[in-house]
Amino acid sequence: MTQGVALTADELAGVMDRAVCLHDAAAVNDALDRLARDITGQMADLRPLILGVMTGAIVPLGRLLPRLDFPLEVDYIHATRYHKTTTGRDLVWLARPQTPLRGRHVLLVDDILDEGHTFRGLLEHCREEGAMSVRTAVLADKPNAGRVPGLAADFVGLTVPERYVFGVGMDYKGYLRNADAIYAADPVDED
Ligand SMILES: O=P(O)(O)OC[C@H]1O[C@H](OP(=O)(O)OP(=O)(O)O)[C@H](O)[C@@H]1O
Ligand code: HPA
Fold it and tell me: Are 105 and 132 in contact (CB under 8 A)?
């Protein structure tokens, strides 16, 4: 299910102009280096199965993998709840991993942890499928009052404020995932 509106190039240029850069490209690079170091420290001996949470994980996962120098497998999992809008709804499953999870040490990698309903659903799935352990890594953590109680990522790259953010995998209404820094949309663009 895909909702949201088709945005013109002019409208997107306006969103970019009004946005505030929260973490520039250098800060994102440093955060990915740190994430890789922390993940390596905990998981290098576990031959983990890394699951990218589509679609937002594409950029952070693609940039993280070459920084991980140990045996690992990669697959993907696809559940979504924002549907190209700025408001989360029910989690809709689009694809479950093809790799059996039983007995595996799993690392879920996503672009952002916001209210946490996505991770809650994915963690439950991995545990039901018999994963031996499940850890979570996000490029951006957005602490907020609506967070699923007790839910936190094991590995966090950067913290972002309670604004709608985009770039480095995170979308603005389906666009701007390819921006190479993390931006906060102006409040006028949040609806
Ligand atoms: O913590 P939550 O409030 O659940 O939000 C986080 C999720 O929302 C985004 O996915 P989205 O549903 O927008 O799909 P996308 O990955 O295709 O952007 C993001 O990539 C996370 O998976
Ligand atoms: O702030 C956000 N930006 C992009 N995608 C998201 N998914 C949840 N929150 C966000």
Answer: yes
Q: What CATH fold (topology level) applies to the domain 25-165? A: Rossmann fold (3.40.50)
Mind listing the pLDDT tens digit for each residue in 13-37? Answer: 999 999 999 999 999 999 999 999 9
The finding on whether 160 has its CB within 6 A of some atom of ligand 2 is: no
Q: Can you spell out the DSSP letters for 82-143?
A: STTSSS--S-EEEE--SS--TT-EEEEEEEEESSSHHHHHHHHHHHHTT-SEEEEEEEEE--
What phi, psi does 142 have (nearest 5°)?
Answer: -115, 85
Residue-averaged pLDDT of the chain: 96
Query: How far is ligand 2, taken at its centre, from the CA of residue 56, in Å?
Result: 9
Q: Which atom of ligand 2 is nearest to the CA of 56?
A: 5
- Which residue's CA is minimally distant from atom 9 of ligand 2? 114
More confident residue, 87 or 71: 71
